[in-house]
């Protein structure tokens, strides 16, 4: 049996950042979870407040060098419906930013974060690259049993172990769950004839977004194609050349011919939000607390704000006991508005594409039309997408007087 101040259960991106942050507070930490497989074909867009937070932790330079800047967000209505929105572009320079953020493939992201572990006090950090077998939460400590039957005791267990979290289960926190009649086909593409010019392009289609995001260089993009589950499987079953041609057609040939760089993967779309964000000696972050469909690039950005909020609660309530009820209650309260506002925003955008009702279509069309015509509204929408509700006003420097 070994003892630490904090046990971070889960070794994905959120787990790595949480471990580094807790060590920065001077707490002893164990990071629990196997080494990354390096076989994740997805990418992550790190935006706004996530960039500034990772800069403060000294992690950003290593991540930025492996990603592509996102300077323009372009939305194209491809629904074919009577009420269609005009093509609308959001440019980061309008709010005083060089870029909204950077897109990076998940394998490179975890690699960069793992390198970041070497920059912290290794006397305070231990990596235990096993899966946790069970978790028990008591009055004074959390107890995590490992695969080899060894046990870690910690004042605080941070649940970064995903939607099927052992920590969440031990805390008895229930989830609100829902599903969508959609699946996302994810693949990375090469388009040799045209550059993306650091522009993310999202086509709004009747089955969901079709989004091309800058990837490793100026002539590669990551694609998230949201369609019905049946169509997703049909696309995945195509040979590479046929699939590349079909995706080029759906992209209206904006970048010319496509070549597939990775094997296509399919993920069913669903949403989950925890009914509470903490339990006895436990804090829920990332997908143990909230799960989003891949729309609006909110997943990891929201997870990093979880870690920031937990850090603020530990500092403001005193670091002697990071798992005290006072700390965890403060953390839970602080996350409600941010998580639920993001949940509602992503859900409404997705449903506005699926809805056959004129009201839903009209609201989306009117919102984008106004954003195109009214600069102050457009700037506000950009800021709202980059930070929590309480920090919108602090994003960027340009034209603040009009927002």
UniProtKB/TrEMBL annotation:
Keywords for the protein's UniProt record, in alphabetical order: FAD, Flavoprotein, Monooxygenase, Oxidoreductase
SUPFAM superfamilies: FAD/NAD(P)-binding domain
Listed pathway(s): Cofactor biosynthesis; ubiquinone biosynthesis
Tagged with keyword Zinc: no
Domain FAD-binding: 4-335
One matching Pfam family: FAD_binding_3
Name the UniProt record assigns to this protein: 2-octaprenyl-6-methoxyphenyl hydroxylase
Taxonomic lineage of the native organism: Bacteria, Pseudomonadati, Pseudomonadota, Alphaproteobacteria, Hyphomicrobiales
